[in-house]
Amino acid sequence: MAATREFLSLSAIRCRVAIRRIELERKAGSPRALFALARKVDLITPTHLGVLSKAERGYRLLGPAPGAVKAASAPLSSETSAATAFARIAAACLRQFRLNEMVLGWSRDAEALHQARVSLRRLRSLCSICKSLFDDSRFDHLREELTWLASEFGDARNIDVMIDRASSEALSIRLQDARDEAYAAVEASLSSVRARALMIDAAEWLSIRSWRAAQTDETLHEQSSRDFASGVFDRLWKRVAKGGDNLIDADDETRHEVRIVAKKLRYAAEFFEPLYKSKAEAKRHRRFITAMEDLQDHLGSLNDLATAPDMLAALELSDVAGAKDLFSAEDKSKLLEDAAEAHAAFVKTSRFWR
Description:
It is built from 14 helices and 2 strands; from the N terminus they run E-E-H-H-H-H-H-H-H-H-H-H-H-H-H-H. It has about 350 residues and is mostly helical. The protein folds into 2 domains: about 160 residues; about 130 residues, CHAD domain (Alpha solenoid). Helix 1 packs antiparallel against helix 8. The radius of gyration is 22 Å and the shape is globular.
């Protein structure tokens, strides 16, 4: 173990930043000991999972403060096994979360909060679509903790969405006040022992891969990631195609369920995109993602309309001028028609994995 307090500096532009870090490296023995030590350190001083190298930190001094970070592709190839693909994609999700969490440490940036929440949702979706790979009691605990942390972002994100749609100054002001409280709650959750422990637990689980050792069916682990992905795509596509064939007459809960499955399918398509490299496959993949984005946007807007009344009531803003504009029946009728058209277009779009 090496504990250091260092400074990165660029003399030409007089930038200097302190780095306080602890590097844990296993020389011998069980790798679990490293994570056990990390937990002990966290009891003494708040400890966060590092995802930036010293070089990356240095380059950040050259420009403005970094903003929100969107998802990046994991390094996958046709030779990558399903188990290895899962571990690499999950690591990319954790990195995206930590980078956006760092932004939220100095700025209440709406897009950074959104992307932090997206990274957790992507990781949860990944665990869901890859659950056949796991035979590990820790998996359920980690999934529950990821669900908890993602839910902590919910109110702040919903308020940000309503602020963008607010039609009156009175409502905007009240929503801004509610936003301050919601972001303070997010900051408290992120600084909690529970959130820090989750990052350490997730890093350990992915690094040691006990979930793989516990799985008796090694043929499933060694299955090519492309074959594994094709099975995932087929199952999710059928659920979205069938579940959304009557969106106009369906109830809000049914549409919400279709939205969740559609989101899993889009995430899965993005996760495994590097496996489809030929010009024709890449073109079909882009078209498929575009169709998915259109469907998701409309289903998301419908969900915003459905949840707005309860959210406004919880904030005691139902009677504020402009509140009812957030969930008008006229808007819903148009969105339903657009969602049905988007679903029909999705069904007609070529499936890039076939």
